[in-house]
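A student in our group prepared the protein record below, which I am reviewing. This is what I was given:
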Amino acid sequence: MNLKEILSISGHSGLYKYISQARNGIIVEGIEDKKRMNAFAHYKVSSLDDIAIFTDEGEVPLKKVFKKISDLENGGPALETKPDDKILKEYFAKLLPGYDREKVYVSDIRKVVLWYNILQRNGYSDFEDEPETKETSEEIQEAEIIEPPKD
């Protein structure tokens, strides 16, 4: 699944799918309600592909966190987003034992779990990395071959 087209819009609940470019922003469609709206240029829009979780070793892309949740839950839904803070922290510690407890807030954990559940409910459950296609591989190989000049 390509998380580049899945968007979070500040001030709007849920997740959105990118549809098209508009004159003064972008057109998005709610993943759950399928309603389209214009996300104006002044909205804070974030692609899920650009989001990562801070850990002691660096950053872990959100897609890998979703994959870990999916593996832990056997492809099913994660925790409900209403449990208390202690339960959420313990759950996240199972997923990423080395997550940075100072930079990752409980509200961030709630969002990650909520987003995973939205994606899982709506059929976006393939969190595997896309394998490189044969054509892309051949293009890279062709680009790397440099013939020496002939005298």
